[in-house]
Amino acid sequence: MDHAIFSVELKINLVDVKGDGLYSPREEEPFSTDSHHVELLGVTGPEGEEETLVGPDKIKKIQQSFGLVSVPFFKRWRIMVLQIRIKWHRPKPVMLFVSLGYFPDSNESTSQRIHVHKSLQIEGKTAVVFSHQFMLPFRQDPLLLSRRIKPVPGSDQLASLPLNETSILVISAKNCSEVPLLLQSMSIEVDDCIERPCTLEHSGMDILHPAHLVPGEEFKKIFTVIPEVESSCLDLGSLSLRWRRNSEMEDLSTSAATQEWVLTKHKLPDVKAELPPLVLNLEFPPYAVLGDPLMYSVKIRNQTRLLQEVKFSLGDAQGFVLSGSHSDTVIVLPKSEHALNYKLVPLASGPQQLPQVTMISARYSAAFQPSNAASTVFVFSSKPQFKTTDIRDNKSEPVAAE
Q1: Higher local confidence (pLDDT), 242 or 253
Q2: Torsion angle, alpha carbons of 187, 191, 192, 196, to 10
Q3: For a designed S-S bond to 332, which of 78, 313, 327, 338 qualifies (C-beta 3.0 to 4.6 A apart)?
Q4: What 3 state SS string does 232-244 have?
């Protein structure tokens, strides 16, 4: 403005958008986080002070959907910057109404107050969307009987995890907002009053520094899950994610920025933990060399107290010549392991599919076999000479592997 203004009063009002009309939550019912999806947290005034820190003698107050900021005198050509902090409890739109009232001179009794109005509709969106995936350890396949039962159409069948066996839980957090985010930590928590029925650990180290997440990008973290009790409905707890907007104007070292981390919780789905009677493991080298024999071991572990009759068959593989029985029936003793060993000679280079193994349990009338990815090996045309990097003392010198 090209003139000084007096007794500036700025009114801020949040109005809920519902249907074709507008309504104010203040006018219908008392505020609660369950019935309202938006809340006005605070307004930072022109002096840089928080409205909640101002005494009652100032005309500056805040409610759940209404704020009032007063400035006695505003000089000519001065710019007043206010920062409004709004918290969404649910991803819904809201209307922000701002009304500026002031007097053109210092004599308020003879002059008329001038009002300027501005409104803006803000879309409240879900900032982070979670997804998860359970995976079995590489080259290990347990016989889970519940997976062999076809689910009823329309029913939500729980994921089955093997009891006392390690399963892999991959959790993804996707930035669905239009601004970059910073992720501080991701963990799985359970209620303190409930004894954890499984072992949950994350692989590697936690987020030591805030992870930058641009719009549309996913952050993934791997957890290991070992169920310790057999249950048809096992509670894994809730995922806790601490995040905030990535603003270049804010310094992460300040205490104010530290207090602005947002905690978002996501309930993990219940799972079924059952004891697999048989567990199939594949063991072979991480790579092969063309023409050099390699050992291919198929191990069957019986986890029951009963004798298990297992029929197996080994399919042909075009990239290998193998020696050993292609099909037979073996008896696995209780609480023991039976190994089938084969010697294979690679005939072609590149990624090659090992002979496919199929197991059939006579007692449970169930067949199972490892996936194609678990039985794939890369064959080099000659013995490779690998080089690694020595990262000790921040050195980057190539070291030849023996």
Answers
A1: 242
A2: -80
A3: 338
A4: EEECCCEEEEEEE
For residue 2, give both structure tokens. Answer: 């090209």
Is 0.70 surpassed by the pTM of this model?
no
Where is 273: in which H helix or E strand?
strand 271-274
180-216, pLDDT tens digit by residue?
A: 988 888 888 876 656 667 777 775 555 556 788 889 9
Residue 183's alpha-carbon distances to 74, 186, 210, 243, 250, in angstroms, are 40, 8, 5, 4, 15
Residue-range domains of the chain with CATH: 5-122 (no CATH), 128-274 (2.60.40.10), 278-380 (2.60.40.10)
Tokens of 401: 């592997």
Kindly give, in sequence order, each residue whose CB lies less than 8 Å from that of residue 110, ignoring residues fewer than 6 positions away.
Answer: none
Q: Which two tokens stand for residue 226?
A: 């070992």
Tokens of 77: 């050509």
Residues in the chain: 402
Per-residue pLDDT reduced to its tens digit, 391-402 = 455 544 444 444
d(CA 329, CA 359): 10
Instruction: Average the pLDDT over 136-148 and give the result.
Output: 80
- Which single residue is written with the structure tokens 């219908």? 28
Candidates 300, 310, 337, 343; CA nearest to 325 is 343
User: Cα dist. 232→196, 229, 276 in Å?
Assistant: 15, 10, 14
Q: Over 50: is that where the pLDDT of 55 sits?
A: no
Range 217-233 average pLDDT: 88
